[in-house]
């Protein structure tokens, strides 16, 4: 017996009793090799449907994150991340901490201030509170993102849906990100304002923040990491989502080694990316930090 979780992925079922130790063991072993819609695939090279432009043997992380769930993973410098809005209703709230110096973290204010642009898109850097580029957006088929509102909160979700705790049916993004932080030895004070992908917001002429919704199923955004980073992603409805029901869709999270992409960013060789003086200075700050923390061979 099998139960399908998504196209191309099935999970073996079992009728073995778990009321005994041996039955529980047999049940657990029967799950070996199973892939569900809410787990990382280990090793990532076994991901069953890699992108056409990324060989499966290059994947270093592969995971589906359903609505109301979160993930957090430490990724190396030179990693390329691809987030995909699989259903067209996702909102991925993203937080980053420098893995080798976790007190340095994403600073959304500088992320919009330094490049003189409040709207995220290709070429936009995600900056730390130390003026360094943690990641650069290098591809974007969505165009619907937000660096202004932050993740949804428990109080906001209680008011909208009646609940906002992680174990509820409508978890708030900030509560999920806090769980992600705790798993890496961080806490509430380490969780500032975040950015969100796949649900857009624009500022109206009168200054009001207006939801522009999602771009649709299959939209992607790619980022390249300039430093080793703890990346946390929470999938929860955007604070300005007009839907009366909680409907956050699944985000696909893939990562692979792409040192050539980082080299292109460092050298200003990626067309349309990295031409501003402010960006070049922030990249230089990241490179200086990397050199200072890398042992001499």
UniProtKB/TrEMBL annotation:
Residues 1-30 are annotated as: Disordered. InterPro entries: DUF1989, UAAP1. Coiled coil: none annotated. Residues 64-228 form the DUF1989 domain. It holds the Pfam family DUF1989. It comes from the Bacteria. Residues 1-23 have a biased composition (Low complexity). PANTHER family: RE64534P. This is Urea carboxylase-associated family protein. The lineage of its organism: Bacteria, Bacillati, Actinomycetota, Actinomycetes, Mycobacteriales.
């Amino acid at each position: 017996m099998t139960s399908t979780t998504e196209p191309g992925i099935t999970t073996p079922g079992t009728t073995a009793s778990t009321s005994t130790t041996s039955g529980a063991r047999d049940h657990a072993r029967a799950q070996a090799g199973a892939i569900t819609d809410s787990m990382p695939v280990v090793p990532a090279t076994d991901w069953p449907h890699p992108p056409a432009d990324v060989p499966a043997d290059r994947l270093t992380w592969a995971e589906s994150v359903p609505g109301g769930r979160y993930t957090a993973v430490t990724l190396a410098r030179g990693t390329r991340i691809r987030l995909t809005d699989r259903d067209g209703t996702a909102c991925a709230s993203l937080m980053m901490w420098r893995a080798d110096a976790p007190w340095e973290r994403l600073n959304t204010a500088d992320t919009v201030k330094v490049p003189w642009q409040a709207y995220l898109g290709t070429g936009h850097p995600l900056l730390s509170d130390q003026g360094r580029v943690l990641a650069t957006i290098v591809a974007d088929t969505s165009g619907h993102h937000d660096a202004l509102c932050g993740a949804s909160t428990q109080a906001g979700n209680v008011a909208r849906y009646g609940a906002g705790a992680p174990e509820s049916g409508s978890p708030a993004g900030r509560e999920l990100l806090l769980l992600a932080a705790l798993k890496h030895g961080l806490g509430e004070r380490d969780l500032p304002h975040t950015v969100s992908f796949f649900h857009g917001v624009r500022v109206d002429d009168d200054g009001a923040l207006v939801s522009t919704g999602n771009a649709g199923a299959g939209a992607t955004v790619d980022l390249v990491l300039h430093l080793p980073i703890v990346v946390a992603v929470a999938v929860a409805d955007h604070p300005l989502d007009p839907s009366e029901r909680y409907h956050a869709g699944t985000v696909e999270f893939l990562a692979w080694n792409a040192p050539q992409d980082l080299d292109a960013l460092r050298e200003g060789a990626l067309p349309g990316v990295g031409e501003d003086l402010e960006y070049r200075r922030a990249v230089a700050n990241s490179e200086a930090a990397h050199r200072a923390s890398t042992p001499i061979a």
